[in-house]
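Session log. Operator J.P. requested a structure for one protein chain; no other inputs attached. Running the standard single-chain path with token output.
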Amino acid sequence: MILPNQNLLSSLPLVWNNDIFVPKASIPTFFKILSPQNSVTELDHSLIHDMIGGRDKFFEIVDNFYEQVKTDDLLFPMYPEDLEMAKKKLAFFLMQKFGGPDEYRPLRGQPMMRKRHFEFPIGVDERNRWVAIMTKALDESGIDDSHPARYTLQKYIEMMATHMINRSEFDTKNH
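Structure written below.
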């Protein structure tokens, strides 16, 4: 009999099927998680929303993120004084991306994230700071390195932050 670790049992909706616990959503993903040669594996994005606790958890992550941004000398100048709409947009985007309700698209249309961020000078320093703050927000929200969704969220955050880079070091030093 194959049994997942306790973290996985508490994070995925599992059902008993022929001497094995399997998730309702995706049997291939389940075996990928348990695969001994893959100690850390990216999960199907559509599983993340429910796995981490849904809407409330995404808003907690975003609130923790923006609490740090408010005091950050590099990133805060790129944000509006009132962060409420920015919080809502980021939470809706992340929820939609990771299997939650489609609330971002009705509010903002197609994401087009790079285009929406092009007006802001984003270089490697800004990218790295954004990733560091978002990583800390995940930790503060209980999505630490031991959480089964952490690797998938972290990988996406790093990829998107890199995708937002629109200035070279030379450009950002001369602004």
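Operator note: The domain at 46-173 is CATH 1.10.490.10 (Globin-like).
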